[in-house]
Amino acid sequence: MLNYKNHSEKISLIKERKLSLRENVTFFLNRIKGNINFNAFNFVFEDCIESVDLIEKKIMNGSAGKSAGMVIAVKDVLAIKDRPLTCSSKILKDFNSLYTATAIQKLIDEDAIVIGKTNCDEFAMGSSNENSAFGAVKNPVDLSRVPGGSSGGSAVAVAANLCDVALGSDTGGSIRQPAAFCGIYGLKPTYGRVSRYGLTAFASSFDTIGPLAKNIDNIALVLSVISGFDPKDSTSQNIDLPEFNSFQTVNKKFKIGLPKEYFAEGLNEEIKNTILEKVDQLKKAGHEIINIELPHTEYSIATYYILTTAEASSNLARFDGARYGYRSKESNTLKNMYFNSRTEGFGPEVKRRIMLGTYVLSAGYYDAYYRKAQKARRLLKQDFDKAFEKVDLILTPTTPTTAFKLGEKSSDPLEMYLEDIYTTSANLAGIPGISIPIGKDKHGLPIGMQLMANQFDEQKLLDAGKILMS
User: Fold this and answer.
1) Mean pLDDT computed over 389-407
2) Global confidence as pTM
């Protein structure tokens, strides 16, 4: 069993010789083996046990890194040298990465232990983790329900005690939505805060890497390790880096905005009431609640799916069977090899998004769709800029429903896409957001609440999350 709440407690137990790191890692490996029905992992690195004695020695002599002994699972869209990198797709079957992502390398350099690669929607395209060549991931709270996506495997790995922390990627809610469905914390940092080097690109101007954990302390610690400027990523921002795990909660009061557009028709009543109860608690604790407007919110889903599919159609052009990954054997010409490899290698949702993206970028439709969506993105960003002139944080639901049944929305792409209705705006605006577990519905399913802050104001999210924990 786990007998610590966060990483600092774990380190204390190791130093007091009340916890063996080897036994701890063995516990997680056995948990993974005993819960394969969750289908959370694509690959488990059992050889990670080889590093534990050295790391424990460093912990004992005071030379260990910030994340020493933290057992971390990594979404299978992030590169680790000489390890599989499949993006949960047949087209990358048997492909091993040639290098390690910057965010992962930073954790390894600080003595973290990477236990494996987690299942996800193929190329991070999905809201339920049903679009995977490795099969659907199941929610540990209720095995008949989805865990959310696309970082569903990472969320389940944390929620089911298969690791301490997991890394996911968030293009339109892919960390926050599964965090909400599984009852844990999930943070999407500001775009440019964490290097994207080594993250397989879905939509390059949206993609972010962030942590999922059972507590704010571990979220803050991992964020402090993986953040920072990286010359290998042209979008990485070279700015001062706060000590994210130094919380500023004493007598801290926030101005919190409630956007009316996020509490309108379509929101589950239990989620709405649970969030409004939390809002009342915040008000009684002295935080100022301000009603605000984000008038262009209604365009966020359309804007998001036009721009991300356009970028995906470009980014995924490289997977053609010519250089790496899956190549069709039923090909006698170069054109047939491209056609057959992509037809056989990609799943239906990825094909759908490639076709949508190619369409909106095509001659005659570029101005009507892509250019107009870019203008809408600017208006959405301006909405947030104006709101943050009045408030410190924006509070919303994370999802319109709690975790739905496996297969329930698979035949209706539009209904599935609307699951991201409250999360895509943060990616469109490039701002940070966090999902915080705040309760359960009548079926015992977790409810998540989202907080968003202005660019590079992750500390406010962490402080507010810490206050909500108390």
Assistant:
1) 98
2) 0.97
